[in-house]
């Protein structure tokens, strides 16, 4: 069976339309993962898509078609609000081919988390490029309570978003952060120069994962930033492996 879907997420962002548009199109390593986009109408987009709307700083969209009726479309519509703020309407539409209900729920929850992270980038790291790394937990992090164990190890089991936490990571030292996002299946931590995002994909048939987005110091130097990101990924990977034996 297949299912067409449409996910709409709207939010106010503390930043100008120019800042939001730049983050959405050129700064994806800061809130999603590194994506190369040819910055023009008809240009090449991610995963074989094409840029179908290009009107800086108000509209960007890409679209791709595939076999058996598959398609995937991403749309960003940005309008100006008073006091240097913006309104972003994001729409993701496409087709799911299997495990429809579970995958649709996962897509909805991931969208909310990614779009929150985009807003955090614009507010706290405007115009700054990020170095990116991704970490996957071991097989044991696919257990039903896996993300709850991560939350406990981070010291956030009994706190709410907005609280500060500190965790010691071998090789990195103390990581002092604000909990900027907290949901059943997701956790976001923000420091002065980094964001750490934890994904409880154990709830959707996979394992716990995390992404690392580094904005400080040598992150503006691509080679040096990538090396720092790899070092952080190794340290956090060892932490997850230790947590799940």
UniProtKB/TrEMBL annotation:
It comes from the Bacteria. This is ATPase. Gene3D superfamilies: 3.30.530.20. InterPro entries: START-like_dom_sf. CDD domains: SRPBCC_CalC_Aha1-like (cd07814).
């Amino acid at each position: 069976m297949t299912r067409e879907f449409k996910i709409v997420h709207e939010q106010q962002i503390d930043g100008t339309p120019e800042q939001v548009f730049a983050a959405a199109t050129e700064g994806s390593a800061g809130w999603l993962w590194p994506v190369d986009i040819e910055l023009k109408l008809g240009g090449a987009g991610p995963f074989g898509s094409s840029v179908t709307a290009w009107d800086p700083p108000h509209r960007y969209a890409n679209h791709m078609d595939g076999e058996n009726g598959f398609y995937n479309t991403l749309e960003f519509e940005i309008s100006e609000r008073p006091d240097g703020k913006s309104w972003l309407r994001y729409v993701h539409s496409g087709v799911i081919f299997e495990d429809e209900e579970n995958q649709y729920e996962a897509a909805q929850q991931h969208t909310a988390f990614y779009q929150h992270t985009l807003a955090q980038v614009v507010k706290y790291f405007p115009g700054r490029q990020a170095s990116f790394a991704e970490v996957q937990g071991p097989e044991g992090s696919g257990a039903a309570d896996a993300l709850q164990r991560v939350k406990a190890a981070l010291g956030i089991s009994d706190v709410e978003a907005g609280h500060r936490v500190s965790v010691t990571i071998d090789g990195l030292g103390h990581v002092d952060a604000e909990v900027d996002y907290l949901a059943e299946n997701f956790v976001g931590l923000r420091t002065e120069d980094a964001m750490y995002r934890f994904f409880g994909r154990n709830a959707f048939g996979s394992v716990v994962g995390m992404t690392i987005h580094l904005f400080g110091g040598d992150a503006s130097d691509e080679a040096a930033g990538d090396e720092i990101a790899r070092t952080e990924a190794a340290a956090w990977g060892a932490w997850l492996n230790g947590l799940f034996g």
